[in-house]
Amino acid sequence: MSALDRPVRRAVYLTVLAANEPSPLLPETGDEPAGPVGAKARPDSVVRIDLAGINQRTLSLDIPSADYAGLAAGPPGTVFYAEPITEGPGRGGLRLQRYQLKERTSTPFLDGVRSYTLSADRKKLLYSAAGGRWGVVPTDKPAKVGDGPVNVAQVETWVDPHAEWTEIFHEAWRTQRDFFYDAKMHGADWQAVLAKYSPLLPFVNHRSDLGYVIAQTGGELVVGHSYLTGPGDLPGDAPVSVGLLGADFTVENGHYRIHHILTGENWNPDLRAPLSAPGIQVSEGDYLLEVNGRPIAPPTNVYQPFEGTAGHQTVIRLNSTPTFEGSRVVTVVPVASEEGLRTRAWIESNRRKVDELSGGRLAYVWLPNTSVPGYAAFTRYFYAQQEKEGAIIDERYNHGGLVADYIVNELDRKPMGYFALRDGKTWTSPGAGIFGPKVMIVNESAGSGGDALPYYFQLRHIGPIVGTRTWGALVGTTGSPTTIDGGSITAPSLAFYDLKGRWAVENEGVTPEFEVEYTPADVIAGHDPQLERAVQEGLKLLKQGAFAHAGRPAPIDRASKKSP
After folding, report:
1. How far apart are CA 276 and CA 267, in angstroms?
2. Residue 272 near residue 266, CB atoms below 8 Å
3. Do residues 475 and 224 lie in contact, with contact meaning Cβ atoms separated by under 8 Å?
4. Is omega for the bond preceding 24 within 30 degrees of 0, making it cis?
5. Do 103 and 88 meet the contact criterion of CB atoms below 8 Å apart?
6. Range of 271's domain?
7. 434 and 529 both lie in a single domain
8. 42-51, 293-302, 509-518, range with the lowest pLDDT
């Protein structure tokens, strides 16, 4: 995770393979080229690689460093590479560059592509672009998206599903065989596993059936992260979106009444709350009487009239009483999902609860995962509460992702001194951080990176952990081939072992120092016993006083001291 949010810079290099070959980048003298640039290889030529001194024969091309990717060899003396378009037209796509060794320059070749590949003779280039567009263009001159269009809608193929499913099953079996981190397959006789599940294939009559058989086969490894990640070629219907208002309803007096309105961040597209937008006069307790001119009342489902309204202006009629007399009409724009709003409401409720229970002394930070959203959540919430004396780090329901070394390092950051000012509060060094006690909350729904984080938290002795044992799935994947129909499975390619050379965490989880269950009865009663216990432990540590900042020394009196 420490690699996130860091500028990525790459350059393009050329290596002269044979020790007796000259550099193609030598300065040209007169009208003669310096080296065999763009020369055609003889049919009987042999590529020779002299490893001795090869590091001194690696040269940098005259291309400014940037976030490059997708390097590919073009025609003789030409290479292609791509860089992200970060602003202007085509933003979000890739700019394909073409470098020609003879001219020693790089020029834009094709803007706005998503991917590309070259033909075997390097004379043609196939690209894909937004909107499902494809095209084939020659490599000898720049092109633009739309050139050489390929109508993929006319591409058809005949498929024998049972034959294809049999092939996919064997692909999945081979993927585990070739990519699983343990060549001994956790003791499973992998050939026998193939023989065990192959007899089920004649009875597979749907892609979902095949997925079930593949999952059962992978289950023979008894390992986390062995599952289906892509369903493959499944038939499906186009979903119908239902607009949501970001509100909870109750049934009162024969009508739907707004019980609670979720608030979000209307400047944030992912947290737009329809009923809290500027100028919308809606209050908790109002009755919803009509949607787009259609009356709404039980037993009709309150969400039925909102079908197809997500992202569209929708007119609703409201009143503080369950009557049309004196009602008002309001135009709102429903959202397609309330997940972000409800998650934020839970986070903010927990933050306020920790603030209340600790008397404002402890911060609260929830980590949804250990990937980009988890990185953003930690950075945003942790440093926004630097005035707090300690912190509760909640990683329940953490979906994992990366190894959270960044978070562990920041939590373990120690003060190294202070800088006194004439006015205002003393500065700490480092200048950012919460240096007091930390308590972590975990549960059985935190896994993978969500296992590694509390494990490292314990390893560093940062603080106690409260909750229930984590999932126990500390293996990882670094990618595996897709199946012929676009499906995919995971083949764990790395597994964790501890500093003493023992396999750890996988199938074990991380056990908290203070085991506290979270039961439905607690929720109904309005309690979160894990959160409450974490605050108690944080306050105990604060009471010990070991984390108190050193006080400012007495003023220095240098004027009265005699010179040596």
Report:
1. 12
2. yes
3. yes
4. no
5. no
6. 247-335
7. yes
8. 42-51
